[in-house]
């Protein structure tokens, strides 16, 4: 568009009317703008909407939200979407209960959302596309990225999951964690067995000769045990990135939101005996025992992979705990030493190991180790000394056991952490024994006076190795069923592991025509590189806020929810 006051190169305007030349330039500018917009969308950044809850609670599909009537915790819950697919039916289900993530209270969704059909839209996200197009070690796909890709079932529907497995490695989910090993570190015999398992999947999908399938199945059965034994020695845990880990923590119990009505199975902090010097008051834990021996409080709670997004049918009892026990935990609180004596300890167990994080007012921090069977016999794993704490200074304390790494943090900085030589998994034991129920986390104090506020216990992501939703499907990449990822093959997992149809569960029918033609070049349970779209990085429009000030818009979330706009980790 031109202007008479422009400098060199301006176009004249005849009688105040645009000339044919200026009209043509305006039209050219509009066309160029459209071209640039399409180019930008095709190669740079594209917007997507989350349709389902497979990535909850990181990303929400169409959902309802409520504040728990028993503890005041605000949370989102999903709609009735049994297939967990963008093509599946999604609607409020009047037969569902929304179970609070914090206190496990069964909230009636009908009174909150369903009666008004107050459905909220899924998160709208932005996806970087050009880094994947360029690729390379710096810009290409990385483990634990949140990735948008074309679903194997049709090649047109967009899926979003977290990238867990990379090309040229073997992946196996064991005891809720992801383990990997580079294929070039395996013996020829082990690689052959894993490749035979891949070939067997193809033969079954393609309707191969039954006698050939039976013979190959027998050979794999005879050799897989030896391959798994080798993998036990060569696989290592794929620890989540720091950014991903922060997102994947889920609250097990936040003492800032104590239940108003305590039922039998609701979480709470308990003293060991009636004469305890601990006080588990409303939103605060305090201990007054200068000169006294150690005493503890324990958390009574179900520590498992429960996700509040997944509603529960009314006729299913809450006591039917169908979730896997989780022992990767974090305890955090604000600590106020009223007296500069004694020490505070937090205990976390994982299987037979018990780890204790200790902090004293003089700045001494320790990680101690013992066993669940003999907790009194402790050994020091590591220790350090930081500046002593003033009587009026409040300390942000965190102690965690996650991905076989124990860490102690003060004021957001890790001051102590174990290494693989001090603490690492025994894969053979993990594969062959189910996870036991977790020993409750505890907090101990001795010879001091303290106050703990903002006390929270979090649970880590637990990736499920079997899923009752599709009992006839072989679960790819799961316990005792490792998957060999070849060049340009990726393995995807949803954050809502109990309600995510991802690489573990893609069946033979989930191979669309665009992949059938590739024959054996496409492997079940993987996403080829050329089906990747990009890396999700920002929620630019979470479900909008509503207001009744404008009556005809009261049922629409048209007000931007700036507080819930966020980076995707």
Task: Report on this structure.
The chain is α+β, with helices and mostly antiparallel strands and 569 residues long. The chain folds into three domains: 63-123 and 542-567, no CATH class; 125-241 and 464-538, Ribbon (Umud Fragment, subunit A); 250-314 and 327-459, Sandwich (Jelly Rolls). It contains nine helices and 32 strands. The strands form six sheets. Strands 1, 6, 7, 8, 29, 30, 31 and 32 form an eight-stranded antiparallel beta sheet that branches. Helix 5 (188-206) runs antiparallel to helix 6. The longest helix has 25 residues, at 20-44. The two termini are 42 Å apart.
Question: Structural class, please?
Answer: alpha+beta
Instruction: Please identify the top-level CATH class of the largest domain.
Output: Mainly Beta
So, the CATH homologous superfamily of the largest domain? Answer: Exo-inulinase, domain 1
End-to-end C-alpha gap: 42 Å
Number of strands: 32
Mean pLDDT: 86
**Inertia-based shape:** globular
List low-pLDDT spans. Answer: 1-14, 82-90
CATH architecture of the largest domain: Sandwich
> What helical percentage do the residues reach?
10-25%
Return the domain count. Answer: 3
Q: Helical element count?
A: 9
Q: Might you state the CATH topology name of the largest domain?
A: Jelly Rolls
* Rg computed from alpha carbons, rounded to a whole number of angstroms: 28 Å
Strand content: 25-35%
Strand count, sense and barrel status of the largest sheet are: 8 strands, antiparallel
Give the arrangement of secondary structure elements.
Elements: H1 20-44, E1 45-49, E2 63-67, E3 74-78, E4 96-99, E5 106-108, H2 109-112, E6 124-128, H3 130-134, H4 136-139, E7 146-150, E8 158-165, E9 169-174, E10 177-182, H5 188-206, H6 210-234, E11 236-237, H7 242-248, E12 250-254, E13 268-271, E14 278-281, E15 284-288, E16 295-300, E17 312-313, E18 329-337, E19 343-350, E20 353-359, E21 364-371, E22 379-385, E23 394-402, E24 405-410, E25 413-417, H8 427-432, E26 442-446, E27 449-459, E28 483-485, E29 489-493, H9 513-516, E30 527-528, E31 532-541, E32 566-567
Helix pairs in contact: 5-6
């Amino acid at each position: 568009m031109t202007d008479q006051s422009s400098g060199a190169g301006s176009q004249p305007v005849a009688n105040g009317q645009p000339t044919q030349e200026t009209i043509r330039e305006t039209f050219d500018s509009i066309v160029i703008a459209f071209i640039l917009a399409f180019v930008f969308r095709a190669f740079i950044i594209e917007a997507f909407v989350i349709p389902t809850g497979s990535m909850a609670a990181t990303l929400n599909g169409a959902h309802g939200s409520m504040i728990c009537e028993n503890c005041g915790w605000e949370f989102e819950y999903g709609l009735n979407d049994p297939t967990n697919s963008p093509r599946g039916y999604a609607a409020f289900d009047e037969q569902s209960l929304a179970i609070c993530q914090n206190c496990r209270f069964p909230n009636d969704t009908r009174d909150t959302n369903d009666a008004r059909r107050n459905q909220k839209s899924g998160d709208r996200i932005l996806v970087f596309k050009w880094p994947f197009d360029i690729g390379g070690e710096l810009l290409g796909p990385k483990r634990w990225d949140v990735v948008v890709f074309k679903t194997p079932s049709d090649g047109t529907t967009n899926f979003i999951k977290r990238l867990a497995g990379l090309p040229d490695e073997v992946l196996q989910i064991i005891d809720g964690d992801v383990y990997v090993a580079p294929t070039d570190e395996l013996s020829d015999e082990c690689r052959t067995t894993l490749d035979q398992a891949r070939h067997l999947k193809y033969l079954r999908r393609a309707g191969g000769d039954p006698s050939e399938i039976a013979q190959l199945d027998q050979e794999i059965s005879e050799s897989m045990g030896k391959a798994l034994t080798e993998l036990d020695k060569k696989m290592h845990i794929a620890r989540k990135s720091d950014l991903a880990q922060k997102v994947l923590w889920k609250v097990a119990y936040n003492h800032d939101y104590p239940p108003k009505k305590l039922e039998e199975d609701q979480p709470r902090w308990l003293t060991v005996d009636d004469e305890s010097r601990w006080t588990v008051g409303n939103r605060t834990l305090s201990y007054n025992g200068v000169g006294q021996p150690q005493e503890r409080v324990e958390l009574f709670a179900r520590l498992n992979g429960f996700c509040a997004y997944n509603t529960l049918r009314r006729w299913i009892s809450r006591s039917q705990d169908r979730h896997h026990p989780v022992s990767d935990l974090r305890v955090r609180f604000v600590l106020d030493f009223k007296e500069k004596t004694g020490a505070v300890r937090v205990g976390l167990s994982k299987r037979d190991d018990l780890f204790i994080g200790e902090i004293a007012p003089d700045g001494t921090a320790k990680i101690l180790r013992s066993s669940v069977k003999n907790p009194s016999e402790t050994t020091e794993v590591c220790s350090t000394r930081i500046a002593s704490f003033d009587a009026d200074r409040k300390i942000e304390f965190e102690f965690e056991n996650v991905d076989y790494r124990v860490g102690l943090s003060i004021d957001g900085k890790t001051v102590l952490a174990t290494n693989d030589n001090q603490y690492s998994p025994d894969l053979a034991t993990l594969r062959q024994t189910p996870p036991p129920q977790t020993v409750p986390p505890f907090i101990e104090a001795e010879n001091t006076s303290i106050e703990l506020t903002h006390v929270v216990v979090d649970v880590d992501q637990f990736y499920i190795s079997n899923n009752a939703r599709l009992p006839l499907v072989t679960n790819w990449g799961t316990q005792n069923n490792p998957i060999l990822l070849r060049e340009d093959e990726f393995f995807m997992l949803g954050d809502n592991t109990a309600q995510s149809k991802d690489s573990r569960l893609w069946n033979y029918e989930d191979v669309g025509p665009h992949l059938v033609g590739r024959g054996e070049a496409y492997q079940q349970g993987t996403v080829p590189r050329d089906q990747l779209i990009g890396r999700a990085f920002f929620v630019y429009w979470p479900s909008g806020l509503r207001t009744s000030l404008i009556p005809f818009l009261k049922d629409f979330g048209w007000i931007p929810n700036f507080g819930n706009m966020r980076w995707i980790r």
